């Protein structure tokens, strides 16, 4: 099956499917040149100081669950449920050091907790009309051998 990223602008080198440090391309945010605030996703101005000079900032692939909840009902459009129907999933904030990233958490209920070490991964989002599997980023539990 053919796959594509849900939004290539969220990732570093999205066409490169060989990644040295994990099973997903790295996320890319932006850093303000004036106050050094890091944001994700990228934007043209700084939310802290309104500076207009933002540079690309590749984000770490590892982080810690900062907070989480269960997405128990389908989100509003443009969300598309998978072909086999909606299933609840975890979402939360992942602390990547300089920035908190809101993301899907591919973590079983019995393992999820604040402070859990996690790693960037890709998960299916939906199947497009032409049969392409569209994938998005998420964070999964980090295995001991990855630390």
Describe this structure in words.
The chain has a five-stranded mixed beta barrel. It has a three-stranded antiparallel β-sheet with strand order 3-2-4, with no helix packed on it. It is built from no helices and nine strands. It has strands at 3-5, 28-32, 38-39, 54-58, 62-71, 89-95, 100-105, 117-127, 133-141. The chain is mainly β. β2 (28-32) and β3 (38-39) form a beta hairpin. Helix content is 0%, strand content 39%. It is globular. Residues 18-22 have low confidence and may be disordered.
Q: N-to-C terminal Cα separation, in Å?
A: 32 Å
- How many β-strand runs? 9
Main pleated-sheet profile: 5 strands, mixed, barrel
Q: What sort of overall outline do the alpha carbons produce when their principal axes are compared?
A: globular
The helicity comes to under 10%
Q: If helices are DSSP runs of H or I spanning 4 or more residues, what is the number of helices?
A: 0
**Roughly what fraction of the amino acids lie in strands?**
35-45%
User: What would you call the structural class?
Assistant: mainly beta
Strand order of the largest sheet: 5-6-7-9-8
Radius of gyration: 16 Å
